[in-house]
Give the backbone structure.
Amino acid sequence: MAFAPYGQDHPTRLDGGEPAAPLGPWSAERVAELADRLDCVVVTGDGLVGRPDADLAGCYGVTKDEMASRSPSRFFLRGLAPLEHCCPVIWHAVSLAGEPGEALAAALVGALTDRPYVAVSDLTSKQWLEAAGVDREIVLLPHPALLASRLFPSSLIEKRLEYLRVMGWYPPDGPALLVQGDGSLAANVQELAAALETLAAELGAAGIALLQAEPCRGDQHFADALADALTRPPYRLAVVGVEDVAACVAGSVAVVTSSSALAATAMSYGCPHGRTGDPGRLEDGIGPGRLLALQEELDASFDRVARLAKDAAARAGHGDGGSDLDELVATVSALRRANQVQGRRMAHERVVLADQVTDLNAAYTAVLMGKDGEIANQRHAIELQTAELQRSQALLEQVSASAGDLSARLSAAEAELAALRATRTFRWAAPAKSLIARFRRSAR
Amino acid sequence: MTPVVVPTVTGPAGPTVTIVMVTYGQWPLCRQALEAVVEHTEPVYEVVVVDNASPDDTAERLRGEVLGASVIFNDENHGFGAAANQGAQHAVGRHLCFLNSDAFVTSGWLSPMLKLLDDDPVVAAVSPRFLNMDGTLQEAGYLLDRRAVTRPVGYGDDPEQPQYRFGRTLDYGSGACLLIRRRDFTAVGGFDPVYGEGYYEDVDLGLALAARGRRIVYEPRSTVRHFSGGSSEFGQSTMERVNKNRFILRARWWDAVDSRPFLESLERYPHRLIATRDSTSVDRVLVIGDPSNRTGSLAASIAAQWPTARVTLLHEKASPCAASVPTLLAAGVELVRSDDDVEAWLEARRFHYSVVLLGREDHGRFSPLLARTQPQAMRLLDLRGPTPKGSSGVVSAGDTAAVRAADVVLCASEQDRRFVAEVARNTPSLLFSPVPGKDEIVDAMSHVGMAPPLSRLERRMAGSASARRGSWGHGPRRVG
């Protein structure tokens, strides 16, 4: 679990929607509760020790008294004393806000001497601790922000940079000179403005972008003052999350900053960087080989912390299979992904098959319908022919019947004529009839 | 005009939800939308309004008529996605709710959506049921096809039909109203501004979340009325932008959309519609039986264990008792009545299911249909289910065909198992309780090829900080 002075009790827009658990006000009871609940505690952060609690009030929008009454610095410095034998406290990449006075020096000696691991993130803090009398191994680490380029995928960085451009907070047509400073630098912006404009021109920057990365340290005050002093209006990055900070660093031609975290982020992206107080002296971006070496130092330190935490968990009887469990979950997760991919492929193939079955069914039906149609046509033709035949037969029968009738009538007439010819009158009248006929023919 | 007063959240933890509303003109609708929020939302929220350089008096009205909200005024229209990101940057709530200025929330809309996010860290976003202003359904989620064409589910239908009232995993949720965990939104970099003013930023967001193993779910118990098109004009130039964005999305997410069906020729290929709807569900279980009894509880248990699975319960006309329906729908079970056109229904889902679970009594009626339309599905036979009419209840020779057709048989007794061993020697049989527990169900489903459900540890790790920030680039390091 991650803890912060307020955490979920006071979410802020910078927490990315993932606020830490609240440390709560310092008390012996709270210390006992945490020592009982946790196996190991890691303290980390820039300028965490030697800074008055009241200075944090602005970060949370609470009064200085309210913040002082919570005493988060007691957690940062004294950890879970006197219960650290139950729950060890580790310092990892901590830096001091200033040189410790006598009282703080004594407190540091008391707090750090028996801790299993103490690592600081800058040489000055190490020297201050040694000068304060902390007589033990103090590991000097690179700043953890050197890991920034491994933290965010490049697609995310590109997406956020495009967003910043669309919003007009970053030059649309090229890299910026990125500038950040804390409130203490706001008084001397005139000279700085001129130097920055010269630097931007030398580097071919498309503009100067003012970043307010650390709102608790007066970045806005500095940015307002510098914006007024610049001859051309700068781009302003006022409300940004950590992803946006990484994006604009990655996209910039150089970074001028008063923040060690931002300088380390610039190094992580191979971007030249300089101190805000002295922008003319830029340090070149470090090469990939050097960066890799520094990142490996950090990896080794994280591994050491993980090992200590694992040992502490084992001592507390909470098992020692943490990393094995991670690997198991990762393996199961990979198998699930493979199962999903395969399942989707099979589902797709089933849809293709269903399409094909539909097409085949349709084709089959069409074929069936085609054959049926042919048969129906033939049947229809036969029916037509049959009907025609039947009509012809009927006609023939009618004609036959008429012919029979006519034939009968002819026979009757012939019989009647024969009978008539056989009569005595006909025979006697025959010579006269012949004579009359001859006479008529000659008359013509 | 009386101002709209957004209540101030009391308590140390601040607002749970930040409602982000992007405005571009249409003040009367914006005001109505804000009034609906105030009227229908418990005071656990803050409101951030981003005015995208409205061409009318909306900005002025926002200044004068809205109290208690943070209002950001842009001097140019940056498009929905970028402006929504801007609103999100000012949020302090654990969750963000993007709400269109023409979308009107209704009573009780927020709680069911919040519960889904709070109960499961794998759920990153929730989309409600959208109604048209005339009360008809506007969408019960959207479909996304192979060409990256989108299509609303159920447009113009009766929203109370059961097929629109069960929760399910979506490809994406419409940006008209989308509740999303802020850390997940941040982790994918928010809406991509590359889409400008032409839609598809919400589709891109959904696919980006899914690529991180997160789910976007549809919650039909939350209802939002949406005056579609009220916040944007839809002309020829918009269509061109939509098409341009469709191509961008298609190119970017080809691996996610390429295995989907085409949403065309649906009269000829009706199965494509349902295959697209369920394309996020690899496990698809068809349960046949009465929702009011054991079958219903089995379906609900399967849906609860495998939230990404599609569980469909096919039941007799008018058989479910009224009480069981809401429970099943809430569990994410799709209820379908097996009335006269069941054959056509099964044809329209040809080859869709991976598992079919049915009882003895349904074997006779459904077996030939299943053999024709779902031959690929593993078949689970529940011998504990209701017995065929006229049967003594004891497993007998009459059940031989059902047992032989099954891939796995759920038995009530050792006697049943002996019977299964006699008639189908190679078919696994499992002893199953009258009210089976989670382990029994997981065991049974694993026999038909379903992967075990996500463990509590996996869910927790999926929602942890390390997952949010992504890998450190070299995978987990072995310690010790």
Observations:
- Confidence is low (pLDDT under 50) at residues 465-480 of chain B.
- Chain B touches chain A through 67 residues (CB under 8 Å).
- Chain B has 18 helices and 21 strands.
